[in-house]
Design goal:
The complex is a heterodimer of chains A (123) and B (413). Chain A is an alpha+beta fold and 123 residues long. Chain A has a domain of 84 residues: 2-Layer Sandwich (Alpha-Beta Plaits). Helices cover 29% and strands 30% of the residues of chain A. In chain A, the strands form two sheets. Chain A has a four-stranded antiparallel beta sheet, covered by helices on one side. Chain A starts with a strand and ends in an 11-residue tail after the last strand. With 413 residues, chain B is an all-alpha fold. Among the domains of chain B are: 98 residues; 125 residues, Arc Repressor Mutant, subunit A. Chain B is built from 21 helices and no strands. Chain B is elongated and about 80 Å long. The chains are: A alpha+beta (123), B mainly alpha (413). Chains A and B meet through helix 1 and strand 4 of A and helix 1, helix 10 and helix 13 of B.
Chain lengths: 123, 413
């Protein structure tokens, strides 16, 4: 089954970490990505800071256009920063992959993927 | 420092501007607000590692900070009026959290930045104060950012703080026009702070990168609080586009490298990508402003793989638009530089004739004229213009750059 690992973190905190701490976090991601690459296909994405977001909200009346609002959908403390999609044999395996990123910076939500498609790479 | 405490520090730093702003409104006393926030962070360091991160760290820190502040007031029996009329004592925790709506907070942060913008302070002092109060940098860090001695910086900040505290700026929620005016003033401060970092006005260094980074942080903070203000998107985009060139702008010998000669492979592509996203978002609003246009100009440069691919016609149009909004001699000078690329140096020199009076003391005016003369093959006039620039007391690397150009002119005399 495909599992997603959704990464939530407080925006702007990573940038304030000392360089060696930043490097340690990045290294965990690089290690995980190297392991996943050996196993086959996976997907990973890191999102830009939330102030780049634009949110479409449902229109107040039927027939109207959705409202376009600047900023992220929810005013939450921890924000959605990025995700992995990994083919795993079990929830345990998915949790182990998430655990290898295990940091106190981020909350990691592991959630099965109902459907996935498409293929993309950033330039 | 352990990884966990490094992360806690980072988290506190991120929360600090909002927390200080809210506590200042509560206590009407900046020193007490800072003291209360430090106390709450100290408590968090003890409690969070054991109990885990609270659901809302800002609210947690504010609740603890408020109590610490009240205790401190009781101990020192400072004037009880200080906590009135919005008397802190009577609030329950729930009330405080309820009042943590973004609307109130954003005006609190804006107010805090606004009191740093006292017109009787120099831009450097305003910036230093904003970094101390809002950014939470230590005096030593600010001194390093400005490349001055900590002792001198301490005196400057103490003096500036005294001046700023005299400002009688009400705590009531500002009306729309007042909020707009404050945002404009504060944006200008952040813009000038970035420029001070980007083209250091004195000393041996060309770029004070920490100042640029702090200005970027403040721009992010403002955009976080005012997410639909297109000029803030433009401001942040402009900073990111300029800062994306930082590695290419100074060569290994510490010499300034002009835009045309920069190694564009050194430009920070993710930063450029973010700026483009912001700018695109801003332009959807259809409310162009000077920051958005300047960012658009920087984006045209960023889009060119090589200097010779630059779309100067577009840049020329953008400067013409900028001049309509900001009819200043410096904008006209930049417009002339773009005109030179499109129509040749002769047309551009004609544009500059009227600027002599205003810009005689501006280095870039003379170096721009020198470039035009060089292009027209008039080495003597170019050399004279460069010498006038040199006489204006540029920074050491700029001086070396100018001397090199003068030597080149002499070869062509």
């Amino acid at each position: 089954m495909l599992y997603s690992i959704l990464i939530y973190s407080a925006d702007g905190v990573f940038d304030r970490l000392p360089p060696d701490e930043q490097e340690a976090v990045l290294q965990k991601h690089r290690d995980l990505q190297a392991r996943l690459k050996e196993r086959g296909a996976f997907a990973v994405a890191k999102l830009m800071p939330f102030s780049n977001a634009v949110t479409l909200k449902p229109p107040p009346d039927q027939g109207q256009k959705p409202l376009v609002v600047d900023g992220p959908f929810a005013e939450t403390k921890e924000r959605f920063m990025g995700l992995y999609i990994i083919d795993c044999a079990s929830l345990d395996e998915a949790l182990a992959f998430a655990g290898s990123l295990g940091t106190f910076h981020d909350a990691l939500e592991v959630r099965p993927v109902a459907w996935a498609g498409g293929i993309l790479e950033s330039p | 420092m352990s990884p966990y405490s490094a992360w806690l520090e980072a988290r506190f730093a991120e929360i600090r501007p909002k927390a200080i702003a809210a506590l200042t409104r509560q206590f009407r006393d900046l020193d007490l607000a800072e003291e209360a926030f430090s106390a709450s962070c100290l408590k968090a360091v003890q409690v969070w590692p054991r109990q885990g991160l609270p659901d809302d760290p800002l609210a947690w820190l504010l609740t603890v900070g408020r109590n610490a502040g009240i205790d401190s007031l009781r101990r020192t029996s400072r004037s009880r009026d200080a906590a009135s009329p919005e008397s802190a004592d009577q609030d329950t925790e729930g009330d405080l959290v309820d009042r943590l709506d973004m609307g109130g907070l954003r005006d609190d942060v804006l107010r805090l930045l606004f009191i740093c913008c006292r017109p009787d302070l120099t831009v450097q002092d305003q910036s230093a104060l904003a970094l101390r109060i809002v950014g939470g940098l230590s005096v030593a860090e600010i001194a390093r950012a400005f490349l001055v001695k900590p002792k001198a910086m301490e005196q400057r900040i103490t003096r500036a703080k005294r001046t700023a505290m005299r400002a009688d700026i009400p705590f009531q929620t500002p009306d729309l026009a007042e909020r707009h005016a404050r945002l404009k003033t504060v944006s200008l401060l952040v813009y000038l702070m970035f420029n001070e970092g980007w083209s250091a006005s004195a000393g041996d260094t060309l770029i004070k990168a920490p100042l640029c980074e702090e200005a970027i942080r403040l721009a992010r903070l403002l955009l976080d609080l005012f997410p639909s203000v297109s000029e803030l998107m433009g401001l942040l985009a402009l900073f990111l586009l300029q800062h994306s060139r930082r590695r290419a702008r100074v060569d290994p010998e510490g010499e300034l490298v002009g835009l045309d000669d920069q190694d564009r492979a050194l430009w920070d592509r993710p930063m450029i990508a973010e700026a483009r996203a912001l700018l695109e978002k801003a332009l959807r609003h259809g409310t162009p402003g000077p920051y958005q246009i300047q960012a658009a100009i920087a984006a045209v440069h960023a889009a060119a793989a090589h200097a010779e691919d630059t779309d100067w016609r577009e840049i020329e149009r953008l400067y013409a638009a900028l001049y309509l909004m900001q009819p200043t001699p410096v904008v006209r000078l930049n417009h002339a530089a773009a005109v030179a690329k499109v129509e040749g140096p002769k047309a551009a020199l004609t544009m500059l004739e009227t600027l002599e009076h205003d810009l005689a003391g501006y280095q870039w005016f003379h170096t721009t004229r020198a470039a035009f003369f060089t292009e027209m093959g008039d080495a003597a006039a170019a050399k004279a213009a460069l010498e006038r620039a040199l006489a204006l007391g540029p920074t050491a690397p700029e001086r070396r750059h100018l001397r090199r150009q003068i030597t080149d002119c002499e070869k062509n005399l």
